[in-house]
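sry for the spam today, last one i promise. struct tokens for design, 572 residues
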């Protein structure tokens, strides 16, 4: 009992503060031990925290280095191109095509440099007076329209300067009555294409901005859009000269762009607006698939007017086919193909041949009366037919492709039969006299070379390359000035106008460039062109929330484009 009591006394004394005052050496040891323990724990915590911070810092630096490496690879591939060994791997890339492609690229550089020098930031260049004009409300239309052409041709320095302007200066908050159609195909289409090619989100952000400003145009009783809208106030209306009606092409040529925007933003509102238009037109779609150019936006029904594959009708039919292609030809877009095939039966009912040379052409129709007139604008039709021929069975496909080739021959002769070998705006056909120019101006339009591009891609027939080269040489001879390119007031006399149209850079030169490029460059299996020649990636249609549209910057690079370095032409 005493022993137990003695042990407790000793144990308690250790935890009693008085014990240490009696034995100061033990007190020093305890304090030293406590401080050492605190320092050890604190040091380990600091080391762990510092280690974590260091790891985070290194990861950030690694991510930055990866981005810099990607940018470096982009610039190397853009500026250097492929060496001759790489080029030779393309079976359809021969020395003549390489040389011609470089000539077209040089023409683009000349047009772009002139725009930069005299009209930077304006909508269009006036080469003869060396100034810019704002024909589209000051949206930098030529610049935005040219973005993808610059990218595809590997002109990275010009593309970067244009991108900086888009990021810092492109402003859509303008008190301006814009054409919904023109703004969609040039600006929305141009920005989306630049995004799909480069992966830079500034283009997608800007495309969303302008599309949001256009959306109120679809707030009509039927959902058929009004064709003009104030970009700042959102008030929409139609042209007075249409009698309050909406124009067929202007109302049915926004589907590609707005569907693509919904896919890339995961916001269905854009797609819903433009698909309602097609559903409305489908309710009263005629048996021959041919719609007049005026549509009543209140009732959604056609108003008595001309039926044409030229001005104000053309691209409606083009987009029926291309939305089907854009949706990867799936069940979700089958009705677009069905409507298009119906319309192509109607087109064939308008086809006639001249005498004595048997030029095939497409008439216009007013009621039951056929007019023997064809716009150069309708020369998009051979390319459309060639592109769509692949969706038919073998017998019908051959028939449709044959019609495309016949029409292309006529369109080529629109050029060859004038003194300047540039086409007029439209042509009239007379028994025994073949055809003659009607409206005689040429404004650098792309439709014929567009069709030559498609026909070459689909048939492999190099004749279409030769025709395209002849047309390009005529532009060089008649339209090129030291300060850019101009149209002609008269293709017979060669008198020049004073405007470089935005679509000359966006379409005409791009299609010519691709006409002499390997088929792997902007493959028709992966891309679909809008009506302004802006390529958009093909994405299978489905639930917008499930679609995952990724843009891989390196996979988009035009790595099969160049036969010679840019510097060899002196444009560094």
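last one done:
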């Amino acid at each position: 009992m005493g022993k137990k009591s003695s042990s407790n006394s000793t144990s308690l004394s250790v935890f009693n503060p008085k014990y240490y005052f009696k034995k100061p050496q033990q007190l020093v040891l305890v304090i030293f031990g406590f401080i050492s323990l605190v320092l050890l724990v604190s040091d380990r915590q600091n080391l762990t925290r510092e280690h974590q911070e260091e790891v985070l810092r290194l990861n950030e630096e690694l991510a930055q280095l990866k981005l810099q490496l990607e940018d470096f690879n982009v610039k190397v591939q853009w500026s250097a191109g492929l060496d001759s060994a790489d080029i030779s791997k393309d079976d359809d890339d021969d020395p003549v095509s390489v040389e011609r492609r470089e000539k077209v690229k040089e023409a683009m550089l000349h047009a772009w440099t002139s725009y930069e020098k005299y009209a930077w930031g304006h909508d269009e260049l006036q080469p003869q007076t060396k100034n810019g004009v704002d024909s589209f409300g000051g949206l930098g239309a030529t610049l935005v329209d040219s973005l993808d052409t610059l990218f595809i041709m590997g002109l990275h320095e010009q593309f970067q300067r244009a991108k900086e302007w888009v990021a810092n200066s492109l402003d859509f908050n303008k008190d301006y009555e814009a054409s919904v159609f023109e703004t969609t195909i040039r600006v929305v289409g141009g920005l989306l294409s630049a995004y799909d090619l480069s992966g830079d989100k500034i283009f997608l952000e800007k495309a969303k901005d302008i599309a949001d400003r256009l959306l109120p145009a679809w707030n009509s009783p039927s959902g058929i859009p009004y064709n003009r809208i104030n970009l700042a106030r959102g008030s929409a209306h139609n042209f007075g000269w249409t009698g309050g009606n909406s124009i067929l092409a202007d109302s049915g040529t926004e589907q590609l762009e707005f569907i693509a925007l919904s896919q890339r933003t995961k916001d269905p509102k854009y797609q819903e607006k433009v698909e309602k238009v097609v559903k409305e037109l489908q309710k009263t779609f005629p048996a021959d698939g041919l719609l007049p150019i005026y549509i009543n936006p209140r009732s959604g029904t056609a108003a008595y007017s001309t039926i044409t594959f030229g001005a104000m009708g053309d691209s409606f039919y083009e987009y029926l086919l291309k939305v089907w292609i854009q949706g990867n030809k799936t069940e979700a877009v089958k009705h677009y193909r069905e409507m298009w095939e119906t319309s192509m039966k109607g087109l064939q009912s308008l086809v006639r041949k001249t005498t004595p040379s048997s030029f095939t052409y497409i008439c216009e129709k007013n009621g039951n009366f056929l007019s023997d007139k064809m716009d150069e604008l309708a020369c998009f039709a051979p390319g459309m037919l060639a592109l769509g021929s692949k969706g038919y069975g073998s017998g019908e496909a051959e028939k449709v492709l044959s019609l495309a080739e016949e029409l292309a021959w006529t369109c080529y002769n629109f050029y060859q039969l004038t003194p300047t070998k540039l086409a007029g705006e439209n042509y009239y056909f007379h028994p025994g006299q073949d055809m003659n120019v009607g409206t005689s101006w040429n404004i650098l339009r792309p439709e014929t070379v567009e069709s030559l591009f498609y026909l070459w891609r689909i048939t492999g027939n190099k004749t279409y390359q030769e025709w395209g080269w002849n047309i390009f040489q005529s532009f060089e001879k008649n339209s090129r000035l030291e300060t850019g390119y101009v149209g002609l007031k008269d293709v017979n006399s060669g008198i020049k106008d004073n405007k470089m149209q935005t679509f000359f850079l966006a379409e005409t030169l791009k299609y010519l460039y691709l006409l002499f490029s390997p088929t792997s460059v902007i493959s028709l299996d992966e891309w679909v062109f809008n009506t302004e020649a802006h390529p958009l990636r093909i994405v299978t249609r489905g639930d917008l929330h499930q679609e995952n549209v990724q843009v891989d910057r390196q996979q988009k690079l035009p790595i099969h484009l160049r036969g010679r370095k840019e510097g060899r032409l002196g444009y560094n």
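Confidence is low (pLDDT under 50) at residues 1-12, 70-89, 551-572. ok im logging off now
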